[in-house]
């Protein structure tokens, strides 16, 4: 009998399914050692970038260099990648005062000085200029427009740099297909209004979905805006199922990203023979309140409509009260037609929560759409039952209780189990893929 478990941050949760249930797939990956020399791996990649001259030839000692680096919401080895890049720039005789490091926050919150030190290193923060991007700053520089005509503006320090480098990570993304690439420009250092319009226009529609680049308007607009902004080089960490570095890719933004996506597909794709009646999935590596909704994207791909999704999650950063109350209010106002109501509102360019960020509203929409199409049972030691139920999900104290609740709907069931829900790329086979 297959030993089933879910992966959380500090433990594995083991369980059994009822004998009346049939296991379709247990989507577990083979563990591999953590890389011992990340700095060395990145430096080697920088010396042979994809479709781009080596950094020592591309960046001159007199150039003003802007490095846009992802914020702490991803657990990629960003500090080590940054160290490798700065060593290469030093070898190219670029002095520290010609380098600015912009934290690509998008619409996320600012980091204080102590957080910068913890995430990026005391010595680097003391030597180089680090700044938070402000998506509402008055001096953002226009670099193009959305397809609708809305102006897109980016951080002035980035726009005025002679050479622009992005440090990001590649992993399956619910709307962009995959993270990384041009996202380090848009939304990372762009203006709030354009980010909001872009996300509302494309999210949860058509081919804006996990694992898809070709024909995905969410991704294509981001790619084109990064090109318009003059992004010169990207260093992307391809992340494995443990949210650790598998391999860095470096080079021209589009080409290096495509190469990294191919690698991500290879290591994270998991076949599923059919959509299940019940899917049991963890939120790993996500634990922040708004982020734990992201694994619902792959879960909804591999679960049949009106099926049950059991979501086990850590809960390190609680959801804000307006998120919970906003979700409850929308669910109550649009009972029975949550999906069309969400899409209609987004289609009008309106947020679910008027004062919420784009990310905040995307998470709300994921939660609402999930409960419209499926019965979702949340298992958490930290997330209060009242919070779960106000959002619109059912609550269980443990996996065994959640399975017993799912049996009420499906005494006999076909089951998919996903130990690491936030890093999987589901691939449905045969008729299930149609």
Could you give a quick summary of the protein structure above?
By secondary structure, this protein is an alpha/beta fold. It has 2 domains: 4-28 and 273-433, LarA, C-terminal domain (2-enoyl-CoA Hydratase, Chain A, domain 1); 38-267, Rossmann fold (3-Layer(aba) Sandwich). The protein has helices at 38-47, 55-58, 78-91, 113-120, 122-127, 156-159, 192-202, 217-229, 253-268, 296-301, 321-333, 338-347, 358-373, 385-391, 399-409; strands at residues 4-7, 12-15, 21-26, 65-70, 99-104, 129-132, 141-145, 151-154, 163-170, 172-173, 177-178, 233-239, 245-251, 269-272, 276-282, 303-312, 375-379, 394-396, 413-418, 425-428.
Blueprint of the fold:
Blueprint: E1 4-7, E2 12-15, E3 21-26, H1 38-47, H2 55-58, E4 65-70, H3 78-91, E5 99-104, H4 113-120, H5 122-127, E6 129-132, E7 141-145, E8 151-154, H6 156-159, E9 163-170, E10 172-173, E11 177-178, H7 192-202, H8 217-229, E12 233-239, E13 245-251, H9 253-268, E14 269-272, E15 276-282, H10 296-301, E16 303-312, H11 321-333, H12 338-347, H13 358-373, E17 375-379, H14 385-391, E18 394-396, H15 399-409, E19 413-418, E20 425-428
Parallel strand pairs: 3-19, 4-5, 4-9, 5-6, 9-12, 14-20, 15-16, 15-19, 16-17, 17-18
Antiparallel strand pairs: 1-2, 7-8, 10-11, 12-13
Would you mind describing this structure in some detail?
- The chain has 434 residues and is an alpha/beta fold.
- It folds into 2 domains: 4-28 and 273-433, 2-enoyl-CoA Hydratase, Chain A, domain 1 (Alpha-Beta Complex); 38-267, Rossmann fold (3-Layer(aba) Sandwich), CATH 3.40.50.
- It is 34% helix and 24% strand.
- It is built from 15 helices and 20 strands.
- Helix 3 links the parallel strand 4 (65-70) and strand 5.
- Helix 1 (38-47) packs across helix 3 and helix 11 (321-333) packs across helix 13.
- The longest helix is centred in the middle third of the chain and has 16 residues, at 253-268.
- The radius of gyration is 22 Å and the shape is globular.
